[in-house]
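Hi everyone, sorry if this is the wrong subforum. Our group has a chain we'd like a structural model of before ordering constructs, and none of us has done structure prediction before. Sequence below.
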Amino acid sequence: MKKFLLSAFALTLAGSGFAAADQPAIVPVPQQVTSNGSKAITLTADSRISIPRSDKALRGAAELFSRQIAREANLALKVVEKPEGDIRLAIDPKLGEEAYQLNITKQGVDIRGGAPAGVFYGLQTLRQLLTQYGATLPEVTVEDAPSFGYRGAMLDCCRHFFSVDDVKTFIDMLALHKINRFHWHLTDDQGWRIEIHRYPELTRVGSQRAETVLGHNSPACDGIPYGGYYTQKQIREVVAYAAERFVTVVPEIEMPGHASAALTAYPWLGCAGEGYEVQPHWGVFPEVFCAGKDSTFEFMQNVLAEVIELFPSEYIHVGGDECPKDNWKICPNCQKRIRDEKLKDEHGLQSYFVLRMEKWLNEHGRHLIGWDEILEGGISKSATIMSWRGAKGGIAAARSGNKVIMTPNTHCYLDYYQTEQPLGNEPWGIGGYVSVEKAYSLDPYDQLTEAERPYILGVQGNIWTEYMASLAHVQHMVLPRIAALAEVGWAYDRRDINDFRRRMENLRKIYERCGYRYAPYFFEKPVAGE
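Answer:
Right subforum, don't worry. Here is the predicted structure as tokens:
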């Protein structure tokens, strides 16, 4: 492991008395870091961040960084459109879009990125160095680029609703970790959270449930009405906020299952046409969209037409998971569809549903993501699979030539407990056990050949909120495990759990300065060898 660390950091310590504990502590770990520990520059209130003239993207990144370090390092730095400055930002087309180079010398700090995103990530690295060393920075050179292009985290806002400010804070957490996708789970059985102008009942009726289950899905409920949704104006605000942090928002509109809220608003979307409710309990319910009616597909297309106007994301997530087939088996319309389309069975009907929606999305310039259940019954080669029931679905999809995002519950479900004996020690989770070390050990390429590996787009952590009613609870479940998954996605081939533990002590300081309510368990364990 010592040999691995030297190759990962290419760290030079010669002639400076630079102790190993003083090595730059950057998360995710960069491709290459060189430092001799000698003092380079001290930033003061007179220091300036310089950007090329009229570069709006770099100005936004610089001003955001200025606000961050004003809070975290008590440094108030102005942004100027001049060549001269103590922190100089520039675009270098020879670098990859998310790649960056950071060079700290006695002449100042230079950050170059292949695109504004790369410069932004370089600034996030500088943010961590300022937390570690204070305003007096050592000579450091960093060359860096991510292993995977898709590095994501999902927040479920259906089981519990989170305010726009909460969502923005969540996005801030992702940006700190160089995560570039925010998967926003917006519709489910327990609430429809996105305003659709053409169908106002989706939010007037579908966003409200009469009450919420008590305990771990006990028979009793609290009797308190619960609801909330995002207006289209608010969604545009969130999307713009994320874009300023180089995070793309990927919306999820569930189909054909997890449809209770939509069916309650518009009962004609279901097979029975009546008897629906926005669910107060958690779980999987038999009420699903009727796949035998053309009006269902017209509805879904009209919904997605408004969705794609709100979200510039290349990808639209359609769910596709946990869709019971019981109602389809007795629905005359669904059975007629199976006969008319010469489908094998109800699994084939789900495939028909997904393929029909994918065709519409493709015609409108977007690509479909679905949970790994959409593999059942067959899918097109252009669909992207999000593998959650372990890695099995992702492996099968990659071997068949489909793009894959690895998010197995064994490593990536952050609603699972973080300790082996959580009762009395941890806030509620859904069950299961995923430690920081377990998340860190994820191998997105497991069992895949060199030829199959390019189909893996990246990794994602998922936060289902059945038992998380506040942002503080979400933060406790997410941090620091999201840092482990961020390092998997950014630095797949250069990980070391003991060095990660050392570097996390510095990132922990930023959590505290930002007021994030992180879980302490990982930090309470000693570093190996101490």
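For your construct planning: DSSP finds 17 helices and 19 strands in the chain. Residues 238 and 488 are 26 Å apart (CA to CA).
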